[in-house]
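Sequence in, structure out.
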Amino acid sequence: MTTVRQRRVGKGTEAAEDQPAEEKNGKPDRKTLSDHAGGKLWNVLSTTVGGIVAISLGLLTSVYVATLHENDLWFSNIKEVEREISFRTECGLYYSYYKQMIQAASIHQGLHGLVYDNKTESVRTINILERMNVYQEVFLSILYRILPIQQYLEPVYFYIYTLFGLQAVYVIALYVTSWLLSGTWLSGLLAACWYITNRIDTTRVEFTIPLRENWALPFFAVQIAAITYLLRTHSQPVQERLTLLAVFAATFLFSLTWQFNQFMMLIQALALFILDCFDMLPAAKVTWLYIIQISGLLLVCVLQFFNSMILGSLLLSFNASVLLARTIQKNLKKGGLLNRLGKLFLHVLLVLCLTLLINKFIKKILHLESDEHIFKFLKAKFGFGATRDFDANLYLCEEAFGLLPLNTFSRLSDTLLFCIYIFVLFLMTVAAVIVAFRNLSGSNQVQFVEKMEECTVTLKPDAAYNLIHTVLFGCLALSTMRMKYLWTSHMCVFASFGLCSTEIWKLILKCIHLYTSQRTHAIKYSVTIITLLYISYKFWPGIMDELSELREFYDPDTVELMNWIKSNTPNTAVFAGSMQLLAGVKLCTGRTLTNHPHYEDKNLRERTKQIYQIYAKRAPEEVYRILRSFGTDYVILEDSICYERRHSRGCRLRDLLDIANGHIMDGLGENEPDLKPSLYPRFCEEIKKNLPSYTTHFTRVFQNKTFHVYKLAKHK
């Protein structure tokens, strides 16, 4: 614990107040020993009750989200094809590999089908285990096959119940983190209650079950809990080794289950770097955490057949640079304020330069371009020049990748979460600035701090880490709405910790000259209990109403399309269309695809842009040639894309294609001066007129209110 306090004048009665009885009396008497035994018994009882409450809340959360999923879709009553269609977009693609493993003649054959897959991308064999993070589907399918549960539980229920079960792990991890930070399980109870009552902003597991983040975030929460425990100052060597093992296991599982793991852990590494620079964390533990991140990611890299995107990640380059820079600058944490600031500036500059050099070198050696679309997106998003790049604009136009909407804060404020979070964040930030200045200045240069009014500022390493963690992930969430779930869940932890923190209430009461130990504890517990009662009173009726609301899955057009494909096309048929729809085609029918939603591959991105020319202004001969180059037998056109109104002009898919092709967009509005009118009408509109130039190459074989399927002629 780092402390900054004003020098005391007088006898120091406060210090005496806080001292244990043994120190005052010199020799423990019988009453002291009795009190000690009673205190130990009370701690055991409190820990037991807190543990039971944590497990109960975790299980209740699992049941809660499972019930919402059932009530929303009537999942137990709908047909299998409807269940599969409910796994929208990339969710359906991931679940299809679980289904493929379940239906395989043997585990070996199922694994062989994933390693040598020729149905996910036509005219191309790819390694699914190398390309995608689907080891969880593989593990779950093997577990389902070997356990004697096939007669009692359908594969789809085994899958979704596992994901809902992970929500229990998630909530327990948040609960434990808050408990560790504050020292009371009431804080964990408040964090879990906030997580549940703010469900709209803390999770989306009930309607996007197979999404990678729903697998990964519980392990990320476990990792944060383990890091919080590791950074406590009083851990024994055995406890420390076991905690490091827990951090490694959680880091490995988090990395294995989500393709964006490297970016999340890079932010985590930045948090460690900032705190280490200001001497707010034990250097040895920080080094271990860097090594764990590197080793966990490299192990995942091996399991993913040396995935080049992992090897070329900024995280590996950054961590290697930090460790290298620390060996070069050995006297970084010595000297006065100006000396330390100068060394710190050079250290940051050295780490930055080394990171860029190492990363550039690795990418050049490996010819890595898999993640270039992410950096193009970031460059355009933060205003470093406009772009006509189709992939970057595809992300920029999606609401999920836009700024966090302001109504998020009003929803979070309704439960008092955001208001308390900001209050705690402000106090903790002030404490962090004071402690950082003290660490940089040295003990002989803090006279101006001592001129403050009499108050004590403390910032433990575990609290310091969680402070920087919440700030950095808050910045990420504010800039990209899809990432808010990483922030809002930790917001519950941080706010509840602050409300139940003895240090924070002690600081406040000392600053207003009202501090006593009894008053601090009374306020801490009473405010927490009042907040819990308020949340229960205000939101319990709403939760009950939500659980009683019954709806049913209804998508007859998509069901009709999938049934037609299964009944009227050969198993070897190749389908082209939108990424989102084709994921469902693969899951429901098992047919071969030309493209799919897992976008982390340059060749696939180029292929998708070519396939999407079906919605551009192109000649029928050109579109036919493009589709046949990918082995396409059938193409599915969607009216919802061809006549899209969801996005504004400039962000509709057809507009993005027009801009990328150098054509003027449809509708009223401005166009960039170098865009020109196309020589051809829009393909998806013109093909429906059955003109000879189109019917020569395309024959309509299916149609309903939403979809139009055309079979491609096989010219010699």
